[in-house]
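Section 5: illustrative case.
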């Protein structure tokens, strides 16, 4: 996870960066900048961590949300016999899922989100 965060941070600074990295602890990470890539300081990379962590948390939440939506796709098929109240409950559930990322501004907010419980 640390390497992914570092790689994402580097690409935020320079999307064309070419490099290798070694080490498993931030303080011991070393970089090998290749193909004339201008080295990026660890301070500059670290400054991107909050943004990268937020984006990674959102990606994880969206993946869970997308799976929940896919798992409930059957409820919107025209040949599924649902009572009107059931249909409304499923529509509300799916709307809650689609809107789940609205207004989230921090990693903590994203990590605090729980998916709604599907109707029975």
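Designed sequence:
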């Amino acid at each position: 996870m640390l390497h992914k965060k570092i790689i994402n941070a580097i690409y935020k600074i320079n999307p064309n960066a070419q490099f290798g990295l070694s080490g498993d602890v931030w303080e011991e990470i070393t970089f090998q900048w290749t193909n004339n890539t201008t080295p990026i300081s660890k301070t500059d990379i670290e400054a991107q961590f909050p943004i990268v962590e937020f984006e990674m948390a959102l990606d994880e939440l969206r993946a869970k949300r997308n799976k929940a939506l896919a798992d409930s796709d059957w409820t919107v098929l025209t040949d599924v016999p649902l009572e009107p109240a059931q249909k409304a409950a499923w529509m509300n559930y799916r709307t809650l899922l689609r809107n789940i990322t609205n207004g989230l501004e921090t990693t903590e907010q994203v990590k605090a989100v729980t998916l709604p419980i599907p109707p029975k």
